[in-house]
Amino acid sequence: MQTDWPEPDSSEERAIWKKLQARLPELYHTLSRDPRAPQTVVVVPSLSMDPRELQKITGFYHYEERMLVNLMLLRQPRTRMVYVTSQRLDPTVVDYYLSMLPGIPYSHARRRLVMLDCDDRSAQALSAKILQRPRLIHRIRSEIRDPQRAHMVCFNSSNFERTLAVRLGLPLHSVDPDLSDLGTKSGCRETFREAGVLMPFGFERLRTPDEIATALTELKLRDPEARRAVVKLNEGFSGEGNALFYYEDLTASLGKVGLQRRILDVLHERLRYEAPKENWESFAEKYGEMGGVVEAFVEGEVKVSPSAQCRVNALGEPHVISTHDQVLGGPSGQVFLGCTFPAADDYRLAVQRSGQRVANVLASKGVIGRFAVDYVSVQQPGGSWKHFAIEVNLRKGGTTHPFLTLKFLTGGDYSPQDGLFYTPLGKPKYYFATDTIQADHYRGLRPDDLLDIVVYHGLHFHGSTQRGVVFHLIGALSEFGKIGLVAIGDNPQQAQFLHRQTLQVLDEETGPGWHHRES
Predict the structure, then answer these.
(1) CATH 2.60.40, applies to 11-174
(2) Running DSSP on this structure, what letter comes out for residue 180?
(3) CA distance 229 to 242
(4) How is domain 303-510 classified at the architecture level of CATH?
(5) With 70 as the cut, is the pLDDT of residue 519 above it?
(6) Model pTM score
(7) How far apart are CA 324 and CA 395, in angstroms?
(8) Distance, first Cα to last Cα, the chain
(9) In percent, how much of the chain has pLDDT > 90?
(10) Which residue from 503, 501, 464, 459 is spatially nearest to 481, judged by alpha carbons?
(11) CA dihedral 178, 180, 181, 182 (to 10 degrees)
């Protein structure tokens, strides 16, 4: 069993990595010409981020389940898959996805799937856990029949994923970790500036309270009417790394020096955090470590939060592959709760055009894989819209698995001409998706219980009508009372109705009036 791997982040490891990555274009060409060509996909859904930020997300380790949508790749009859998780997944959850495969017998797909786990649900990144288990690495390698026809996919790429890819001898279909700064809040602003897209006035590459106070001062002097500003950690997740600063009695009349001094004095008590358990000591420590930005808070009577989901293929070709309207919550509406596809008729093509400009810049810097560009959009007098780019999620995110779910289940495609998604028969499809359905009375529901409820009430996705609900984060239901879903319909109203109907059914089946239903 090989254990003499190069040291992580060494020149030797980087040289091997570069050779492995050079395989991707030819592999892409091969599979594009013949999707039935043999291949092995190793899925490592590691959330390789600051553990302190991840712990703000309820049941964060269950988010490894969101990439189970990749099991749909087994619809290709010669594709094999190795799926690795921190802890063993309930077989019912795996069977649930395999049962939805169009045109493939369950038994045929199951033979081509290998599920492995670390038996470790700690806050450490999954990729790091695998690296600590050389026998598990050997087991994964033993399942790869032809390394020249195999690759690894992940949620986001860090040095852990690069080291793991090298030890597995596989190219990684994701952004080079050396480019990860492009996905930080500071890197985003620099990319937006280069792409020439509108963004909020602000400052990046900040680290100290003095720098935060200086930036907040400049914002107030530039706009004396400003009531608040946003202070963001460079590597915050789903808006949980954001905080609002309220100026209140701090006016530009204090002058630059006086205003800056007063802001610094009250900074620790004026910040309002999106994460419920965040505090100044923790926030300031992380800000000093990872840096961050300060931006003007985008105000507006009519305000929405669309996003453009983009993909740069292995050949370096950038495309916008969907638009969404995000559903946001939290104390000031900055935490991602869900999304609707597509974005509204009024502006989705404008968001698509802006996203394409950002994707072009990122592709020119060597980025590959999926990412999303998030916006805050404000309606202007007369009905037009202003779209402020606010961040790039340089990874798979909350809009990735819903779109892949729709694409894999229907076999349809996104049309950049009108921003809609059409099935092979030319029928448009819409969805509502969320990761954050949660209630205490859902606790204790096992995966089998959920499926029993869903089937009894006819909520599950029907291949014949291509409508219904697809669940994810099923493993988080019993412990945390939390689950996610994608509600797919023939129009936006139907998708929203399916979501509301699901909530109603779950409440009825778990609330005070629940009684055992005879099977």
Answers:
(1) no
(2) G
(3) 10
(4) 2-Layer Sandwich (3.30)
(5) no
(6) 0.91
(7) 16
(8) 51
(9) 84
(10) 503
(11) 110
